[in-house]
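User: Show me a protein chain along with its predicted structure.
Assistant: Here is one chain, sequence first, then structure tokens.
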Amino acid sequence: MNKIKYLFMAASLATVMVACDDDHKPDWDEPSAYEIAATSVSVTEGATVSVSTDVITVTYDHDIILNPAVAITLNGTPLEEVEIVDGNTIKAKVSLTKGKDYTFEIPARAVTAPNAMNFAPAVIVNFKAEPAPALDKSKIANAPVNANATAEAKRLYSFMLENYGEKQLSGAMGEVAWGTAFSDLISNAAGKYPAIVGFDYIHLASSPANWIDYGDITPVQNVWNAGSIPAVTWHWNVDMEAWAGETVMPDDWSGNIQLTFDAEANPDAEFTKALCAEVSDGTVITVKIKDVKAGAQGSVKDKEWAGLSSNTEYFDISGDEFSVRLNQEMADKVKENGFIISGHDYTATAVYVGKTCKESTGKGFVASNVLIPGTRENAVATADVAKVAGYLKLLQDAGIPVLFRPFHEAVGDFTWGHWFWWGNSGVDTTKELWKWLYNTLTNDYGLNNLIWVWTMQTSNEGQPASVAQLQSTYPGDEYVDIVGADLYEAALSDQTAKFSLVNEAIGGKKIVALSETGNLLDIEPQIVENCLWSYFMGWYEQDGNGPGFISWNKNNEWSTVLNHPSVLNRGDFSIK
């Protein structure tokens, strides 16, 4: 039974109510001819009321009592908190949602009065809660920040601006290795193919190879030709210096560099352990060498002095470096115990564990040095940019525009710290890196097919950061087309507050997107709050069995979201 509070003008009214139910009138003490009627209602018919309204009151021309068998309702649902105040006024507690239509009803058999011998007529009021303010797009530029943007890039940007706030584009990573296995899986599960398909230059150092070749743009071209929009993230992995010095590997096989987790054998064991925690299938161990003699051999061993694999026990070397690419089994050994470099007839000068994103603690890749000519970091970064520019140029020559997202999640967490190298010298350096990369790719390499997507980090000790914190990391309107947030939250949760946070931080002057997400978010509150993300990019999952719904979206969420009428998928549009 509903919780109904009664305030009585006289104790005798309680006995009257006992006999009052939905089928019988009260046992009135004496006949009376007077009628009961409502004289005022706090919400008028057809009105639009503030969403902060939490009480509806109805006042009658006599003192009243309520029939507990007949509920007072809002949209057909009985209200839990109803009371009589001042003897003749019903006070009903309500909770309203922005933009929603409501019917408040006091049924005809719900209200009577002492000795009235009748019930008050029904009170029915239809009203609407005020909607959220419409998304104001007037401040957003109508063209990309690059004045020389290609026709394709301009059309893509215009399309996204036109639909911003009206429709949300679906998106999913293709997979980690330059393909579409994950987005194909989603299509099979949801019956719709994502509007945006994500790729990643994470394996830049390994390309071209028989397993990854960014020079083959076929996967991206197929996505574009099929009607989806390509998005490219750049997990910019750089070599991490695991060791530097000068160790001679004599011809008696006695030389070695122990990069294990044993503090006696390796004074920097803790740093090595943190570095090795990041290795995976495809990580490369590179040894810089000099004074290489005829017949020299290198060796990469595990903790027990056996080769990480049969091919790494001993192998011929020449030139100024040798390297070993880890498979999953080898990576697991390195993660557990580290590794040892040995061999004979050469001198080792440095060891790099590539390509990880672990921060430098003084021995690795220092972000601020990228901007200083003559440093190792500047040389590595400049070479990487030249390489990635060549791959992006292939897409431009093919008439393919790209949502380009480098340097993402630069802050990490404002209190707990960064997790990518481009954040290890502070936010001011990251902003300068963004401007440097923008100017280099745009002006030096003539890449005009890119829509630049900056990711704002929204976390501070695991809680939402402040607007001021977000603003402190932003590189500037003249370098950014779209601002995104990366969120890993509960499935189909309401994250409109995060949208509002990002939108406020950039003063409503940019398109706001969900640039990376694990679980998909609920569309409905986004519509109600006028906080519809421009697009979302569902991150991929895979294990030894291939792509799958392993940790996220395990309950058909992809189908729920992609089939929502406010979501655009492949085939719902054309921008060519």
